[in-house]
Amino acid sequence: MEKLTFYAVSAPEKLDRIGRYLSERLSRNVARRRYGYVFIAMEALDQLLMACHSQRINLFVESFTNMVTKLLESNEPELQILGTNSFVKFANIEEDTPCYHRRYDFFVSKFSSMCHSNCDNEEVNMKIRLAGIRGLQGVVRKTVNDELQATIWNPQHMNKIVPSLLFNMQQTEEEPRNLRASTLAENESERPSSLAEVCFRELLSRAGYGTLKSIIMPTLNHMDNHSHWDPNAFALRSFKIIMYSIQPQLLHLVLQQLLTHLDKHAESRPPIRAGLIRVLSETVSIPASIGPSVLEVFNTLLKHLRFSVDLTVQERKSEITDSNCKSWQLNEKGEESKFQDVVIDTIGSFASILPDYQCSEVMMFILGKMPLSIEEKGSQYEESKIFQVMLLRSLLKVSQEFSTTNLSTTLSNSILGPLLSSTLLEEPEIHLLSLVVLQSLLDRHHNLERLGHVRIIPDVSSLKLRTEKCTKQDAAVMRKHGQQIYRQLYQSCNQEDTDRRHFNALYKTLVLLALELSSEESVLVDLLRLALAMQEAAQGGERHLSIYNQCAMHAVVASFLNLLSQCMSVTPFQQHVNKVIETRASDAPFLLPEEVFRDEPRLPRKLPRECKALLFLPSVIAETLQSCAYNGERISVPYEPMTDDHEGHSHRRSLDTTSIQFEVEVREDNGYKAEEVTFESLKNVIGG
Predict the structure, then answer these.
(1) Mapping DSSP to helix (H, G, I), strand (E, B) and coil, where does residue 171 land?
(2) Residue 661: its pLDDT value, please?
(3) Coiled coil where (predicted)?
(4) Residue 599's pLDDT is what?
(5) What is the pLDDT of residues 403-428, one digit of tens each?
């Protein structure tokens, strides 16, 4: 070999003849089954290939590849492995001159078939699979960076390479136990599953913008063909490998391909769609994965959510004996609701990586899908009602990830308008969700988790509630939208189908408004007037409410005023509230939350009438607050909710004139002084 190598290096023009001679000898030896000479010939070829790097190497490579092809075509596993090892050595050589006519189609097909070897001998089977994976790894290294071999990215090749690697990657749990303990399997890198994963990562790392799709599509098709969406453990693992192996600027392309594939499965079984959605959810672990088309992602998810709602309604209407009903709709009843939960959780996962300004856009986009006018007797009433619930649940997920210090962003017209629509009051579940979403938007200091359920709190300071001074922007927002919020809260307590959850949400919303705007006097006074109006309604005002609702409203008002009086730190006001609560505890415990919101409350047939000791009196509250520089006149004026008329897109509003406030600057000798001016004081000045 030393003499032959020296001769080949000294006379490179002879490489072609040397290669042809060795190729002929190897072919004869293979045909005659003289495998010892075959190994000698291949060893000679390998050493010559490693030693010679002249410009004439291309002619020698042709003979070499013909010999490797001859070995791979053999039925003997040893010869196939020998040919593969020689090809891998050749793949690691960097050639000095390009080759315009070399093709690797045969090697791709053969190595891919070796990856699927299924012979009876498990040890031989593993060796052949390992050789096939190494061969594919050699093809990848030899071709992906060669501009002359760009056809390797064509679907005809990738549809063989990618499934072969995935097939071996999924064999981790299926490998025989005796092989795991054998010397061959002792080295982790010598297992087909581990080596296939390394090769798959290497292939992904070399993919570019125009070639990544040729890897993703065979991966998706492989998951379809082998039912890896349900269960989806292998699909999750595979796409995590993809997301962490490709270039960061290509992450959004994977998401787009998954969304497109989800559209193809629009009519598949719910578990399959749910598995796909879970894989989508996992892709957002990397912030760059969502890419520039944020609304497109949410639009696709909401589209599938709507389609699932339609299928749910069809399930409810269809009879079990209906021959036209799909079998999966009958056998997997309830799977659609699980799919809907997965979609909503995925929307929250996507929202968790978005900046606040995009979260705001997404919330407006979701509310834009909200059907604000529904015909009660129409054929689509049930679908629209369920879809409203799903949209509000999605909105809640996004709002929980939305954090801002400015209420003008949180409580904008585009968000508050649909959220406070009167249509949402018609269904108890929908109305409850709208209140919970409003709480999430208001809770900037994370006080919601500290409040708990409706109860009388002896010492509010033990809750360690967080407050800060109200900014001028926040005060302006409440002057603009406060009456809409108050009206929604007032109307919610007058609904007949409310239960404990609704009253708990009402209480938390009132408290959050008071905490977030604790330094704004006008807001606190308006909340006091609203609470007193609720008390008046509970006494038998506008509507005939059940005894439970009346007692629950009294309990909510008592709990709210108890907390508000301690936050305002006005001693006379706090004393009045404590006195009423003590009187109720002894004479009418059914007006306190501890009794009303029990599992089995003891309620009277009717409420006691004209018992002032059990009620919070507006005149007493106004007097106590006026002594501490609060506007007592406004507290004495009964609250009147604002009304909306949405017909013809016109809005006629009955304004609460006592809530109109603005500031004027009065010139004094030593500077400027801001004074509060109410509508009544202006009227007096003009009349004077």
Answers:
(1) coil
(2) 47
(3) none
(4) 87
(5) 877 888 888 888 888 888 766 667 88
Joined tokens for residue 583: 């009187």
Torsion of CA 420, 425, 427, 430, to 10 degrees: 20
* Token digits of residue 22: 């060795």
Nearest to 636 by CA among 582, 680, 685: 680
**Amino acid identity of 421?**
S
Torsion sign across C-alpha atoms 516, 518, 522, 526: positive
Sign of CA dihedral 217, 222, 225, 231: negative
Nearest to 612 by CA among 579, 574, 563: 579
d(CA 585, CA 571): 21
- Helix/strand/coil (H/E/C) assignment for every residue in 382-436: HHHHHHHHHHHHHHHHHHHCCCCCCHHHHCCHHHHHHHCCHHHHCCHHHHHHHHH
What is the biggest distance separating any 2 CA atoms in the chain, rounded to whole angstroms?
A: 125
Which portions of the chain are predicted below pLDDT 70?
1, 7-9, 11-14, 16, 51-60, 95-101, 145-150, 172-189, 285-292, 318-333, 372-380, 422-425, 541-543, 610, 642-688
DSSP assignment string, 340-391: HHHHHHHHHHHHTTS-HHHHHHHHHHHHHT------TTSTTHHHHHHHHHHH
What is residue 290's predicted lDDT score, i.e. its pLDDT?
Answer: 67
In this structure, the number of other CB atoms found within 10 A of the CB of residue 675 comes to: 9
CB-based burial label for 184 (10 Å; 0-12, 13-18, 19+)? middle
Interatomic CA distance for residues 224 and 252, integer angstroms: 22
496 close to 423: Cβ distance less than 8 angstroms: no
Name which of 230, 179, 209 is nearest 332 in CA terms: 230
Q: Mind giving me the DSSP string for 486-538? A: HHHHHHHTT-TT--HHHHHHHHHHHHHHHHHTTT-HHHHHHHHHHHHHHHHHH
Question: Which residue is it, tokens 């269904």?
Answer: 427
Give the pTM: 0.79
∠ CA(189), CA(191), CA(193), 5° rounding? 100
- Label each residue of 249-271 as H, E or C: HHHHHHHHHHHHHHHHCCCCCHH
Residue among 620, 633, 621 at smallest CA distance from 677: 633
Mean pLDDT, all residues of the chain: 81
Element (H, E) at 671: strand 671-678
The closest of 359, 567, 363, 355 to 470, measured between CA atoms, is 567
Distance, in Å, from the CA atom of 127 to the CA atom of 319, rounded to the nearest integer, reads 56
Contact of 549 with 555, CB cutoff 8 Å: no
3-state secondary structure of 676: strand
- Amino acid, res. 549: N
Bond from prior residue into 231 cis (ω within 30 degrees of 0): yes
Query: Which tokens in the block code for residue 228?
Result: 């890896």
- For residue 675, give both structure tokens: 């004074």
**pLDDT score recorded for residue 456:** 93
Q: d(Cα 639, Cα 625) in Å, to the nearest integer?
A: 17
Round to whole Å and give the CA distance between 115 and 136: 9
Type of residue numbered 219:
T
397 closest CA partner among 450, 339, 358, 436 = 436
Q: Phi and psi (nearest 5°) for 674?
A: -85, 130
- Are 574 and 566 a contacting pair, CB within 8 Å? yes
